[in-house]
Amino acid sequence: MSGLTRDILKWLQSLDLTTQIRNPKWDFSNGYLVAEIFSWYYPQEIQMHSFYNGESLAQKNKNWYLLKNFILRNSFDIKMEDVDGTIHCREGAAVQLVESMYEILTNKRVKKILPEIETDYTDFAYQQRLPMHARSTASKAVKNNLRLTEILADQNIITSTAKAQKIINDHIDHRRQERIEDPKRFGIKPSLGDRCVRRADLSQKLFSEPSHLTVTSDLQSELETESMKEETITREPSIQFKEIDVKQMDKSTFYQLPVQSY
């Protein structure tokens, strides 16, 4: 029963459930134990003869269809992401679902340490703990994060393709981040632009860094001297042009000439 706190374990044992909980990821998948827990607090709404303790996908869908309607009808603060993750045996989803049920049914808060990485029900946190050479490839990432029950539950090819494509895109982003964090491992050499020295703007440098100047006039004079230095370096020598007056011919004289005959 890894992942469950001591208070939740004591609470589950006090309910005297018909099935002993060994692994929450698998034991809560079909929804039978979830219905049994709710039946202790809502016996009029949850009746156990309507649920089946089976492992087939059809039995899971029937049980969770009733449970989802019950959750929505009572406006419980339970995320459907946790429910879907529990159905498809995603890592950590069943534990999160049981913790939400514990807080709702007992009006107590779960005392636990918040994880450093946000829970997204993928194997990203596990992959980060592995060495570089042992991390999964793109095909392995799809196999780990896309369950067969998800494909069977929703046989729409477009939806399945979109889920697989999202997993591959996330895998590519993680690999790109690894190359940025450890460029020596991948043999990445800095480009010419990366090797260039970046010089901050003069005005930003003077105002951002502590300066020995205390008078505004001194600061203004230093800015002017620096601008004059840059101007003398970058300004090209001035070139003077002499204006030339050109006398235009009077074209009216062409029309006054006599026409010669041959």
Automatic annotation (TrEMBL):
GO cellular component: axoneme; nucleus
InterPro entries in the cross-refs: CH_2, CH_dom_sf, Spermatogenesis_Ciliary_MAP
Record carries keyword Heme: no
A GO molecular function held by the record: microtubule binding
Gene3D superfamilies: Calponin-like domain
Residue ranges occupied by any CH-like domain in the UniProt entry: 8-103
Intracellular or extracellular location(s): Nucleus
UniProt keyword terms in alphabetical order: Nucleus
Chain segments annotated as coiled-coil in the UniProt record: none
Keyword Nucleus: yes
Taxonomy, superkingdom: Eukaryota
GO process annotations (BP): regulation of cytoskeleton organization
Function according to Swiss-Prot or TrEMBL: May play a role in apoptosis regulation.
PANTHER family, alphabetized: SPERMATOGENESIS-ASSOCIATED 4-RELATED, SPERMATOGENESIS-ASSOCIATED PROTEIN 4
Protein's recorded name: Spermatogenesis-associated protein 4
Organism for this UniProt entry: Biomphalaria glabrata (Bloodfluke planorb)
